[in-house]
Amino acid sequence: MSDPTARILRLLSLLQTYRHWGGSELAERLDVSPRTLRRDVERLRELGYPVDTTRGTQGGYRLAAGAKLPPLLLDDEEAVAIAVGLRTAAGGVAGIEEASLRALAKLQQVLPPRLRARLNAVQDATVPTVFASRGPAVDADVLVAIAQACRGSEQLRFAYTGHDGTETSRLVEPYRLVSRGRRWYLVAWCLQRADWRTFRVDRVQRPFANGVRFPPRELPAEDAAAYVAQALRAVPNRPRAVVRIAAPVEQARAAVWPGMGELVPDGPDNCVLHATGDSVDWLAVGISMVAATSGLRLTVDGPAEVLEALRRLGDNAAALADGRAAAPV
């Protein structure tokens, strides 16, 4: 790539993925010599981009966090994706809604007309739905620190508060973050336990990536979301319900959100959902949503507290339909 300006912009675009780039790999991508690459990196530093350099056989470059935010290089799809994401601020993250609106206003000011038209089309066709969260909010800085460690495949150390309130120090190889309803979970290989673990992010404090990189391990599940669902089903005293569905398991699987629980066949034309939830009321809401949107016939075997929650939900829905005030749950 002979044009210096285009080459530096391309270098910046690669570095802004926030992964570690080997020097030879980066030079090959840009079709330049290692000497030219070093010169281009110095030019980025002069422009305010903090590029870290590591030496040795595993040496290379990485864009680090700086004292100020330099200009970002976004292509059309990235700009629209960010704007759409800002319109629906991450649920359960403390203080992010107002910051998202400020960032969206700044981004809209600099979008070219063709991209602004695409964003407006999405906004006009979308009705956001906000659910009040009763759970503890996640600190945005903690969430970002974990995400960066996942992206960079760096070991992460943090303080973790368990169910009994005891704080322990954990050293993990972070794999993925999973947003599940009102809560965020980290899926990671725990070096102290030598096994896979899930961690509630609202219980994580003082996360610190120590710079030690690791090769990815094979997760013993289809994906991180499936692993979290599997781990939560094993938590004792978690609200549960047995739901019988008059449909083959393949048909039910298309209508039931995987995080609700485990679907198992019950003969060729029926299946059973072993459902779990953060609370009895949220479990009742989830079951009701499946019944209302799937067109399938559901029967709930119990337990009694879930059946009672379903009755309250039905009574409140009937009251609202009749113009009466719904009772608090």
From TrEMBL:
InterPro entries: ArsR-like_HTH, CBASS_pafABC_assoc_protein, DeoR_HTH, HTH_11, Tscrpt_reg_HTH_DeoR_CS, WH-like_DNA-bd_sf, WH_DNA-bd_sf, WYL_dom. It holds the Pfam family HTH_11. SUPFAM superfamilies: Winged helix' DNA-binding domain (SSF46785). Keywords: DNA-binding, Transcription, Transcription regulation. It comes from the Bacteria. Residues 4-63 form the HTH deoR-type domain. This is YafY family transcriptional regulator. It comes from Motilibacter deserti.
